[in-house]
Each structure stands twice: as C-alpha cells, then as structure tokens.
Amino acid sequence: QVQLMESGGGSVQAGGSLRLSCTAFGLPSNRYYIGWFRQAPRKEREYVAALSLAGGIHYNGALKDRVSISRDSAENTVNLQINNLKPEDSAIYYCAAGIAHLVVASAEDTYKHWGQGTQVTVSS
C-alpha cells in the first residue's frame, strides 16, 4: 500500500526558506512521479513542482526561481526547497504520487496517491 508523508512545514518570516520532505512508502517501482501541490484558503490547489523517480524534473514556471525539488534515494524522500518565502506562499503543501506514464506533471487528477499535507505559514 502506497503511503506518503509530508514534513518540514512551519511558520517562517518573509524572506526565509523552508525545506519540505515527502517520504514515500510502498512504491512498487521507480516508474512514479512525485509532485508537490499547495492549497491556500479559498483558493484552488496549485501545482508547484514534480520529479520523476526515474529522472526528470518539472516546475511551475511562476515559482521556478524560488523552488527546487530533489530526491534523497537513501531516505526515500523527495524534498522541496522554497526560498525567499512570501506571505502568498502560505498554504497547505501536499505531495502526491502517480504512475509515470499516466501523469501530467501539473495535473493533480493524474496523481493517484496523496499525503495529508503540511502547513506553511509565512508572516510579513
């Protein structure tokens, strides 16, 4: 059974940085994409970045200057580094997993498994 667990959220002042982690349990192969999405109150869920466990990275163009996605194979995690945080980055951040050939990186409905989310709050 696939399970995803996010960690690393918290409260930070504007201009600061956070590293979020998504630990994946039970993925049967490397043919998966891990994506990060976020949802602020009263807003649609927004795509942030995605990484293929077999290689390949994709970013939301509006965020790519401030975010970086990477994989720690030893820890079975996919990390999302967010720099120069702004109050508008405040949201619940979710990671999701989907079978690679079925995933469109930015399309949330192509991901099959979701974590519970981690809250990021940025104060001005």
Strand tally is 11
Average pLDDT, all residues: 95
Oligomer: single chain
Helix fraction bin: under 10%
Report the span from N to C terminus: 41 Å
Largest sheet: 7 strands, mixed
Shape: globular
Rg: 13 Å
Number of helices: 0
Structural class: mainly beta
* Range of strand content: over 45%
Uncertain stretches? none
Q: Helix-strand pattern, N to C?
A: EEEEEEEEEEE
Overview of this protein structure:
By secondary structure, the protein is mainly β. The chain is about 0% helix and about 50% strand. The chain has no helices and 11 strands. Strands 2, 4, 5, 6, 9, 10 and 11 form a 7-stranded mixed beta sheet that branches. A 4-stranded antiparallel beta sheet has the order 1-3-8-7, with no helix packed on it. The protein is globular and about 40 Å long.
Label this structure with key terms.
mainly beta, four-stranded antiparallel sheet
In short:
With 124 residues, the protein is mainly beta. It has strands spanning 3-7, 10-13, 18-25, 32-39, 46-52, 57-59, 67-72, 77-82, 91-99, 113-114, 118-123.
Write the layout of secondary structure elements.
Layout lengths: L2 E5 L2 E4 L4 E8 L6 E8 L6 E7 L4 E3 L7 E6 L4 E6 L8 E9 L13 E2 L3 E6 L1
